[in-house]
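Q: What residues go here?
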């Protein structure tokens, strides 16, 4: 052992002095750790890029029209649908027992695995299923017939099949007699009738019902203030009852108008046929979009693709949120985030200004700072519970009792709404703004403060004109972080205002025009609802990816706007630092 140690010592001493010094310098610089840190950074970037690539690819390709494949399986039945995805699986004994020797040999040769394809067959109201798996060993024939259509319907989802007949106000025609352009014109006219009925029921009749309800609330308000036997109540009752009678006549006229359009619409129908011969008759107005999937040119596919995107960002959802648009969710997400920023900015900046510029540094301020930092680690669902208890039940309940007693026991502000959601998320993100603002204030050179005070400015004037403008880039950084976190939060919103479906936007023509007490839809909750609470998870997957893509895009857009303002502020004060 002694001889070995002496030999190693001799070898070490035998090295040139410059080599030993270079090795020591490399160790001192931490070059191995540098490679490790660089590798960790590269790995993290690869993960982020891979995640974004997955979202972008699945999101952008969701609305691209796919061909309809008709496969004939071994029992003689046929399956028609869009190939959704494929995978390899290991069949169980119950499947293997029903196979031929050649099929078993093929599976054994493939190490016990077999391929299968999931087809989006649609036709849920006929077959009771939207998707169907077909194993490769079951397929005896594949075809892509040009007479098969993909129909997107107002209800019951997609329909895949052929057109058996068309009934136009008593005239029964085939597709060859009417022609495809003629059917497209009839479908557009039918959708116009559908939209007209929707407008009458949603807008016109809704306005009449709103006015009737307001008159009844006025009467109840008078009863609470003056009593039902008072002259004021009796006079208001007579005038309101006369007005309600007029409005009810308007209601009946609008209802009859909508009923007449519906009766006319029922005369225009189409009979669809599945691949196995089952027929389904529906009104043409129930068809949102249709196309011959296997007979589309490239530009026709682009047209369908853009049409779907247009519907997605401008219409309300349908079919349990798995189809249609998400305009209410986009609106709710943007409005709630903007409200949150408007609320959190003054509170966060004022608190940071006081802690950094005015408060006497000591144990109490230290405790406050520690508490603020700890608030950033509180689970978001706890903020949701606080928001429900304090904002909705206590504050909102008090507002209802003071200003809306005639509406009780139905709550106005005493339940979840977009305003309470924004306040809750403002509490959730205010620690981020406070910490970022304090750091930005502390980065302003002390010489600037002293120079301003030496010129005769007061402390507030120094803060207002010298310190705060130069700290604004740091403040904007805090707001960007708060905006990004608030826009993606879901857990507290599930308790304080977000709902599965709220097709009406909280903006209308009635005072106060913007109704912040209403529940709303949110893109984050929409992703959760479609991905985990849909009737069919496979049908929800495409909408999950495309909604996630849109949510990322909105956050990037809002953050980019804030970053642009921050960079402008940096350039403005870059040359004034000394």
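A:
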């Amino acid at each position: 052992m002694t001889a070995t140690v002496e030999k190693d010592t001799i070898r070490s001493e035998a090295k040139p002095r410059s080599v030993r010094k270079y090795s020591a310098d490399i160790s001192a610089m931490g070059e191995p750790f540098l490679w490790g840190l660089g590798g960790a950074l590269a790995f993290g970037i690869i993960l982020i890029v891979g995640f974004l690539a997955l979202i972008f690819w699945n999101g952008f390709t969701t609305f691209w029209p796919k061909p309809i494949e008709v496969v004939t399986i071994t029992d003689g039945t046929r399956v028609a649908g869009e190939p959704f995805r494929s995978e390899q699986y290991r069949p169980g004994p119950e499947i293997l027992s029903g196979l031929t020797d050649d099929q078993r040999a093929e599976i054994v040769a493939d190490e016990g695995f077999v391929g299968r394809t999931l087809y989006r067959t649609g036709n849920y109201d006929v077959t009771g299923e939207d998707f169907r798996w077909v194993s490769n060993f079951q397929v005896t024939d594949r075809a892509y017939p040009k007479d098969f259509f993909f129909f997107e319907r107002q209800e019951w989802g997609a329909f895949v099949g052929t057109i058996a007949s068309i009934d136009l106000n008593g005239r029964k025609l085939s597709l060859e007699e009417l022609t495809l352009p003629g059917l497209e014109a009839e479908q557009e006219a039918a959708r116009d009738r559908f939209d007209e009925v929707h407008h009458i029921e949603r807008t016109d009749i809704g306005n009449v019902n709103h006015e009737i309800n307001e008159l009844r609330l006025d009467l109840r308000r008078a009863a609470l203030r003056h009593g039902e036997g008072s002259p004021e109540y009796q006079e208001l009752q007579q005038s309101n009852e006369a007005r309600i009678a007029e409005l009810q006549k308007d209601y009946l006229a609008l209802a009859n108008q909508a009923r007449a359009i519906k009766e006319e619409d029922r005369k225009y129908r189409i009979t669809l046929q599945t691949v196995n011969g089952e027929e389904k008759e529906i009104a043409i107005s129930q068809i949102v979009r249709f196309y011959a999937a296997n007979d589309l040119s490239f530009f026709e596919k682009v047209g369908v693709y853009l049409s779907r995107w247009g519907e997605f960002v401008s219409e309300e959802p349908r079919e349990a949120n798995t189809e249609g648009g998400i305009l209410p969710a986009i609106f709710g997400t943007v409005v709630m985030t903007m409200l949150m920023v408007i609320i959190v900015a003054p509170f966060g900046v004022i608190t940071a200004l006081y802690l950094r510029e005015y408060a006497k540094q000591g144990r109490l301020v230290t405790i406050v700072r520690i508490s603020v930092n700890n608030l950033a680690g509180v689970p978001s669902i706890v903020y949701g519970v606080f928001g429900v208890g304090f904002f909705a039940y206590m504050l909102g309940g008090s507002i209802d009792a003071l200003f809306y007693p005639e509406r009780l026991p139905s709550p106005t502000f005493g339940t979840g709404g977009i305003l309470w959601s924004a306040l809750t998320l403002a509490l959730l993100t205010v620690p981020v703004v406070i910490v970022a603002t304090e750091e930005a204030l502390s980065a302003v050179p002390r010489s600037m403060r002293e120079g301003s005070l030496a010129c005769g400015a007061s402390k507030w004037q120094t803060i207002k004109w010298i310190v705060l403008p130069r700290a604004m880039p740091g403040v904007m950084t805090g707001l960007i972080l708060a905006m990004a976190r608030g826009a993606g939060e879901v857990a507290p919103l599930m308790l304080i205002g977000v709902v599965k479906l709220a097709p009406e936007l909280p903006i209308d023509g009635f005072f106060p025009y913007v109704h912040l007490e209403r529940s709303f839809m949110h893109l984050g909750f929409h992703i959760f609802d479609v991905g985990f609470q849909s009737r069919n998870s496979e049908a929800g997957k495409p909408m999950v990816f495309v909604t996630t893509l849109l949510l990322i895009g909105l956050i990037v857009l809002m953050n980019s706007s804030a970053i642009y303002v921050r960079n402008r502020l940096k350039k403005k004060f870059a040359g004034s630092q000394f």
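A: Context that may help when evaluating the design: The chain has a mean pLDDT of 87. The two ends are 65 Å apart (CA to CA).
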